[in-house]
Amino acid sequence: MSAPCLLSGHSAALIPAAGSGTRLGRGPKAFVEVAGQSLLARSVQALAPHVDEVVVALPPGTELPPGLPARAIVGGETRQESVRRLLQATRAERVLVHDAARPFLPEQVVHALLEALVDTGAATVALPVADTLVRAGTGIPGLDSGCWGELVPREDLWAVQTPQGFARSVLLAAHDRARAEGYAATDDAGLVARQGGRVRLVPGDARLFKVTAPGDLALAEALATAWDRGQR
Ligand SMILES: Nc1ccn([C@@H]2O[C@H](COP(=O)(O)OP(=O)(O)OP(=O)(O)O)[C@@H](O)[C@H]2O)c(=O)n1
Ligand SMILES: C[C@](O)(CO)[C@H](O)COP(=O)(O)O
């Protein structure tokens, strides 16, 4: 399938994959395999049919595995720096930024994100929070970080996932300004929102969880069986 007609101009998927995977403890995380396929390969394959090109930021000294429909650049020391380099490595008008560490990306989610992008020029996939939320008691007399401090109302709270979509010029301007001001964010939509941009929230999917800690890998292995049989 070629790039959707909802997007005008060229589009690129930008995949930050240059992390060291410290919390997982299995070496550079993008190359870790789940049911025989790396996290990176799964993420690239999920996005490639929807865009004109895929660019991946890899850790220094590593190479793109053969056969993936993507080109590679060297990432930076932080996720933010890796994404900035990716933005500089493409001329596409629309970009979808997606963590290599989120290998299960349903096609419907990509379609919904692309539709939302037409409206605002900036959108992120996110999940409404389902759990009860509490702030730990740090700073409250008699309590500490292991104690219930205060309840946080969960209405209107969303847990941010990727992919996140932007007009490239909008995201590049947000990155340039953040860099000039020495501001760091954990994601790209946060950079755009901080500078007054309107970011549309697009309902995500629980299966889009980020493989972060060893327990997530067990979950990913279990999910991969159904996913690879086409149950998406
Ligand atoms: N310098 C970095 C750090 C992270 N990432 C990417 O950003 C995504 C989200 O990062 P995270 O899950 O935190 O990965 P790591 O940084 O590898 O994990 P850790 O913090 O446990 O080392 C991942 O796809 C990761 O490869 C990146 O491209 N460049
Ligand atoms: C971009 C992200 O995955 C959205 O939830 C997240 O912010 C990445 O955070 P990390 O600290 O780099 O894992």
UniProtKB/TrEMBL annotation:
Site (described: Positions MEP for the nucleophilic attack): R154, K210
EC top class, as a word:
transferase
A Pfam family hit: IspD
Q: What residues does the record give for site: Transition state stabilizer? A: R23, K29
In the UniProt record, does the keyword S-adenosyl-L-methionine occur? no
Keywords, in A-Z order: Isoprene biosynthesis, Nucleotidyltransferase, Transferase
Q: Cite the annotated pathway.
A: Isoprenoid biosynthesis; isopentenyl diphosphate biosynthesis via DXP pathway; isopentenyl diphosphate from 1-deoxy-D-xylulose 5-phosphate: step 2/6
Give the catalysed reaction(s), semicolon-separated. 2-C-methyl-D-erythritol 4-phosphate + CTP + H(+) = 4-CDP-2-C-methyl-D-erythritol + diphosphate
Output the superkingdom of the source species.
Bacteria
EC number(s)? 2.7.7.60
| Protein task | Catalyzes the formation of 4-diphosphocytidyl-2-C-methyl-D-erythritol from CTP and 2-C-methyl-D-erythritol 4-phosphate (MEP).
This protein is called 2-C-methyl-D-erythritol 4-phosphate cytidylyltransferase
